[in-house]
Amino acid sequence: MPSHGSNDDGDISRRPLLKGLGAAGLIGLAGCISEEGDVEADNAAEELIAEGFEEEGVEPPFETTVYANSDSSDRIAYGELIQNELNETGFFDVSFEDMEWGSYLDFMNSVAEEEENALLCSGHAADWDPHVFMNNPYHSSAHSPSGINTNHFEDEEYDDLVDEGVEESDQEARQDIYADAQERLVELSPVALIQFGEQVTAWNDDEVSGFKTHPMAGREFTAVYAPHEGVYTEVDNDDDELRVDLGSDVPDFDPISQEDTVSLMATTLVYESLIAVDFAGNPQPGLATDWEQEDDTTWRFYLREGVEFHNGDEFTAHDVQTSYERYEGEFRESDVYDWYEGSEIVNDHEIVIEHHRDYSGPFEATGAGDVPIVPEGAEDGDVDLSDGPVGTGPYQFDEHQEDDRFVIERYDDHWYSGDEYDNDVPETPPVETVVMEVIPEGSSRHQALEVGDIDLSQGLPAESVAEFEDDDDFDIDGALGLTNEYLTFPLWQEPFNNPKVRRGISGLIPRETIMDNVFHDVGELAYTPISPILEDFTGTDYQDDLAEEYLEVQ
């Protein structure tokens, strides 16, 4: 379930992508101001900006503001670096502001409608298919507030490529389509990609064993108990309790309205989907034991029998139908109605799902693998998900203390019997209770883990990772993730309506400095939107070539 990332930050190969005119070469190359007061470009990126200014009739310096959310020290830090870099050119007079996350989310969702003169430090938590990377932040059908295309970027050629890619099931053909789409996106640069995130988890080695970091933002606690992956976590304490951290309070329990990664994290072990996607993006049986594609737009699912929701309701095909159709008209409508036409209930444990278009490429990972199933009563009010999440997962909701903690406990009637998958995951989760402590500040998270107030942290600041790596009392596990960070341009505002200006700014962004000083080499540099974790759809040489061709990075 893709969303705006509120920005959380393990050990992978680092591949510097910036050539020649890298961060070290950019810093300090301020645009020269002539005796007549004109700003002169000092490098290829600034020449692009100068051309764009001239074409739009804009005189430098142009005043604008970079915004970030105050609970993300990383975004504040790289936002201020970008502010300084642009001010150095002489073409811009940039100020900086930060906002509390809730206010910032509202601001992002309304910035296009209000035509704010704002550069936004933002990010995208995607999924296992390239379509999610390419569609949700950039397709014209995903405009905010019902989608996360916050600057309302529109390009018919780009939309056509993304629509073609989602209907193609042949892997090589999809690679070619998404290569063309990424090239078009870099050419137009509605955003400036900065970094691919890395999911990093640290835990007390004496207290926790068996944990594995999940690559997908919002799925950080999956490894507490993941029979489909063959992973489970054990704790060494009398209460069988695992204490972890959250970066903010949990604002929403209902899947149709969740728009933040924290809500997904808190409810990952509570909700389940038709298909369980493993840590490498491969589909596994979930609430559906089997499924088949009957034609381009028709899929048949055979549902697991003997499953109960946490409130005691029996799980049937009616719950599946309701779970999908509840999305209509809601904030996350596009997650389902991007492809959903309707469904036919064959019997309590068989359902046929019809698509209004061919969605063959991403359907298993996103359409069936990322839509949580809730009780049918959630539609008519018999089950109120605003009071707490109700699913079929291995853990059930226990309590929520606002701005303090969110607690889930083992669900003893979970359907898993130990035989469904070919692995040695025990029938019962070893961890009885998961206590999620709300700790917004990165330094406080560090201290909480260090002194034993929590057993495991998924949200440490990048600078803390090396310290825990060097401490034998702690384990660190990292995985290149399915997230990226970027700067969003106000496309309605001159001179940012000109692609040359946007490409020039993207070429000026000191990515290597940001990686070194902000992310402390956690993650990888980004020029294109698809994470390198999807190896078939991206690569170092490919990113380099596009950067050189369109951003004048040489």
TrEMBL record:
Keywords: Signal, Transport. InterPro entries: SBP_5, SBP_5_dom, TAT_signal. GO terms for molecular function: peptide transmembrane transporter activity. Signal peptide: none annotated. Residues 283-551 form the Solute-binding protein family domain. PROSITE patterns: TAT. Pfam families: SBP_bac_5. SUPFAM superfamilies: Periplasmic binding protein-like II (SSF53850). The keyword Amino-acid biosynthesis does not apply. GO terms for biological process: peptide transport. Belongs to the bacterial solute-binding protein 5 family. This is Peptide/nickel transport system substrate-binding protein. The lineage of its organism: Archaea, Methanobacteriati, Methanobacteriota, Stenosarchaea group, Halobacteria.
